[in-house]
């Protein structure tokens, strides 16, 4: 849908041609059969590059461990960075399981062709046929190898037959008493033992409680025993919370509302019942109004002419809006609009569409009951003077059932119960179009009637440092800082929210000159989310700056040293490639150059002159390794940098070379 909306938005500027039959066949073979099946198949029987989800971007490929073969497909395998080699999802089987399976296939064909054809059908129908039937699209939210496991089981049967096939081939040469245990031992070591050795570290979940810890962090971010309602988005920010409440009986006072399920009548019915220690959600719309097939989608329609006044420009109180969409009066239905127009044949439309409810204005006003806001603890008394009288929101041209129910909840709640959002999406609809009225409390965003201007699209909400500091310091981190656990992909991704939220708290504490608390937050972040374990290094840069700001220059330099090593290893790897291969990786090279440079900028911004001068010289040496990107023999070609990153101050590669002379004019610190 987003792709279609994008195309519709640019149809005046580009002509989009429908794919031809050959284009569709090529897509099916290359992506659906190749990337979405063969890649998964080879993961299981040849090896895997890493545990990073592949998005047709060079990650998550299959890997054999045989360098020259891997180099032909994935580029140079020499001088790989430490982070690549130490990725626990990097597993290599050297084609051994794959070859043993092929031997099994050949053996079965030679001995029992009918049995082979039966297994082959099973193999195809649980593999390629599934991909053909489900017609997978690009940019999946997660890897889909689990849906194809049936075909992998069949190939595992052929691997077993391959063992007997080897025995059968040599039984005329060696005595069975020697051959049988010999073949069994060799195959046992070559395939299952090798695979167990390679896979154990990234399949071992022992002592890892990060998912449970993140669930409790979300729940503990909600106000206790006050009827808190927490809106979550989907799987990853919902299932762990359900587990904590259902199995561990933890924070059962919080009502979890998953907005993905809030589109269904049965789930809405559940939300209207008491669950654990949480009361039903406040709601006035009855089951008949939100049952399946009723009010699934509501559309805005301009009907000013029908009512002889400019309703579309008026702003309705949210209670009046809910009364309108909850009503079954004929004037609230699409059928009424069509019936007032002579050029529309009503019989051409289905009855369900004609009974669709519309709304004549998208402008909604949510009044603020200040007494309820203060008595419920949503806003502290010290911030009472910042409470607004109302919040105005503008709805899009259509809303779905979940938005209708969320608006109904807001209207009936009247600021009596705290409302939170998990932050699992940046889509305005998930915050009921009130992103400017949030407060970041740990991991969750609380809806507050205090307007906060957003510096950018990602830093949402104000911060009460005393409240958030108290929440953060009580978190249980689930052994996340241990070197002995596998920091899986989801744990690392969850670290993005942790790090960015803690970085914002740190910056606010520094702004308020609470330096000791800010230092504690930095130490906590790096202890519980080690740099080398959690990746996503861009979010680490604020902590280098933070250490300088709280007077811990030595710790800032040590953290910078870790970051420097990562980028130097990456750039050294790219520099050793052939020129053509470097051009194939030019986006990654430039991205790492800029990331490295931003770390240098922190040193300069904090007036660490001695370190900055030394590190600048080293940085420029790495930049010089890629001078051929922006200069030819005559030196008149320049490569323009991508300008998507708003943090980039310069637009051309030569400017990455930092001039030492500029440092001499910088003010020196005490």
Structure report:
The protein is of the alpha/beta class and 670 residues long. Helices cover 49% and strands 7% of the residues. It has 29 helices and 13 strands. Strand 12 (438-441) and strand 13 (444-447) form a beta hairpin. The longest helix is centred in the first third of the chain and has 28 residues, at 176-203. The radius of gyration is 30 Å and the shape is globular. The model is unreliable at 633-670 (pLDDT under 50).
The low-confidence parts are 633-670
| Computed CA radius of gyration, to the nearest angstrom | 30 Å
Looking across the biggest beta sheet, what order are the strands in? 4-3-11-13-12
- Helicity level: 40-55%
Mean pLDDT: 90
Rough outline: globular
Write out key terms for the chains shown.
single chain; 670 residues; alpha/beta; five-stranded mixed beta sheet; three-stranded mixed beta sheet; 49% helix; globular; disordered C terminus
